[in-house]
Structure formats: structure tokens, C-alpha cells
Amino acid sequence: MAQENGKIDFKSSVADKKLCSITIDIEVSSEIAGKEIDSAFNQLQQQARLDGFRQGKAPMNLIKDKYAKEAKDKAIENIVKNTVFDALAKENFVPIDFPIVDEFEYEIGQALKYRFTAECHPKIEVKNYKGISVRKEIFKVTDKSLGQTLDALRDRNAKLVPSSTGIATEKSFVSVDYDAFDDKGVVLPEITAKNHMLDLSSENTLKGFAKALKGAKAGDEKDAKVEYPSDYPNKTLAGKTITFKTKVIEIKEKELPELNDDFAKDMGTENLEDLKNKVKESVETEEKRRQDMDAEKQVVEYLVEKNKFEVPQSLVVQQKEHLIERMKNYFKNQGMPKEFIEKQVETGENKFKDEAEKNVRLSYILNTIYTNENLAVTDADLEAEKNKMKESNPGRTEAVDKYFAEKKENIMLSLKETKLFKFLLDNAKIKEEVKEMPLKKEG
To answer: Which of 14, 16, 281, 404 is most buried by its number of CB atoms within 10 A?
Structure first.
């Protein structure tokens, strides 16, 4: 029977139990269910306002006629709320969220039966996380690779000047006017441009343009045919062959600055030697970051491969939704149309699920190691990080203090991750292989 302290007598049995989920069948007798229905009707009677009766004075027969569904729903809600967690407590099962009722059976006058499933955090033992074999490629900066980096810096600071030959080459910048026509010769008024600059050396320049304009001179009129794939984001162009009727306005080429002290000063350094040292230092810093990221990736892949276990699907669903939302925002910021974004979500369905499950499992693995090794982020760690940021942002002390006050939790998580991976790599078997920095290929 229903008890005074809110407890409800019930029968329960475990239908299924796994590492992080349990399914339980519940049965409440018709007598107790009936008393919960009566209690619900009494509450509704006290609250009801029916024509011709003061609040709380309407006859029960009218209340039952008018509020039968409400009373049943209220009684069921109360029974589930007062039995589901007691049933979990009997099994020493701590849920991570409110359980989901999978099956339900009840008619007034009968026993109430339902089945629910709950999830918990899995209790795991992480295996072999010390002594992980890591291969580390260390690329040393050479004179040739440094020269390439300096040439790239010159290229980024080049000026566009009129072409010395007046003839477009694969390295030219060509300014054109164009109109677009479909395969039936119908003009597409929304696809037009004036003084549009095309970099014929860029991979982003449509091949049809590069092919048509090579060898052209100012004043030439050229037809550039471009075949667009069926999944092209712009539906006006998708799956069509478009003819662009172009008129060459001007041809330009890059003029690179001389690699000398004047250029170095323009870059904010004292002289050419100082520029070379700073560029080399920057490349080495970036190379160190690449090495660390690659080493961490190897550790993650090893841990995920060696520790396979069931994870709560509710957390997988949340992580999957997060990944999809992040991708949608990325494409939206790139100006991609809604249809294209939805297509990417559809085609990546399985990939998102696999990645989400891997991320959830990895979080359990890393948190277990962190706890096992008694690692902790201290106030001293936080203060050291704050001081480091202040040193790299002179004159912005107040802004840094405000940032740390507002983002303390995120910063703590980042420091936790840094400390954990330092521990894993300090205890890894690292085999270093020193090589010369690979040179970038032409084109």
C-alpha cells in the first residue's frame, strides 16, 4: 500500500544489466495504484472550480467525469517518481540522468507495470598506460628550409605591379570583367563581375579560367568553360557547364622585396641577421608544437585501441550533437548554403557517431588515469599560467586578471589536460628520429 512517507510498495526485477546500463521491470499492485488515483482525484477536487460550486466543494462524481485523464496521469507520474529511484537503489545503481521509461501498461483497476532503462558511469580499469611506445620525428631547421620560409615571407609581402611582358602566365594576376551563360546560352544575370582579380597560380582559381587566360593580353576577350560538380554549394551552378565570357582588363605580376636589412626593418626586426634568427626561432617553436601534438595523438590512439568498453549512449548522443553543431557553425561562417550543410550532416552521420563514441570513451580513460595518479591542478599552477600570460601581454594586467576570473573553469581544464599528457609522455618510451626539415615542393 501507499505509505505516509511517500514511499510506494512495488515489485522489481532486473531485465538486463550491462557495464553502464540497467533495465528494470516494475509492478505496482492494483490496490496501491487505485489509492494513488483516489489521492489524485482528491487533490483535483480541492483545486477545481466548477460552475455552481465553490472551489473544493464540487461533488466527486463530477470531478471523476471531468478529470479522469488528469487524475490517471498525475497518479502515474507520482508512482514512477516514487518507485524508479528506489528500484535503482536496491541494485546499488547510480544513474547519470533521469531514467527512460521504455514500456508502459496500465488501466484503472489493474496493476501498473512499466519497464525503464537507466545509465551510469562505467567503472573501468585502464591498462598499460605507462611505457607507451611513441615515435618522435624531430625536424631540424636547415639553411635551405630557412631560405624557403624567408622566401614565403617575401612572397606574402610582395606588391602587384603591371606585367613586364603584358602576357598572362600561370603565375599572373589577371583582372577581368565577365558574364556567365548556361549550356543553352541563357545569361545568368546574378553571375557577373567587374574588375575581378584572378590569381592564375592559385589552386582555388577554377581551371577553366586558368586555361583560357594563359597567354592573354589586356583587351583580349576569352571564353572560359567551367564544369561544376552536382554537389556544388551554389545551386544555380551545380551540375552545369557554364561559359564565362571574359574581357581582360589588366595583367599584373608579383614584385618581391629584396631580402636585405631594409626588408628586415619593415618586418619589425633590427637587421637581416636578426630577422633570420627570429624566423628560425618561430619555425622551431611551431615544429616543437607539431612534435607534441603528434606524440599526444599516438598516445590517444594507443589508449583508445587498448581500452575498449561500453559507454553511456546518452553521452554519445550529446557529443555527436556537439560535433554536428560545431561543423554547421564552421560551414555557416564560410558562407555555405543551408542545403550543402544539411547534406554534410547526412553523409557524415556514421562518422560523427564513431568520433563521438571515441571522444566519450577517451574522456573516461583520461579521467581514470588522472585520478589513479593523484594528479591535480593547484592554485600555484593557475597563478604561474596567469603570470606567463601577463609576460606575453605587457600592459594588459587587468585584462588578463579579468580573463582568468571569467574563464577559470576552462583554464583549469586546459591545465589538467596539459598535466595529464605531460605525465603520459614523461612515462612513455620515446624513440626520437632527427631529420632535416623537409623542403616544400614547387607548386
So the answer is: 404
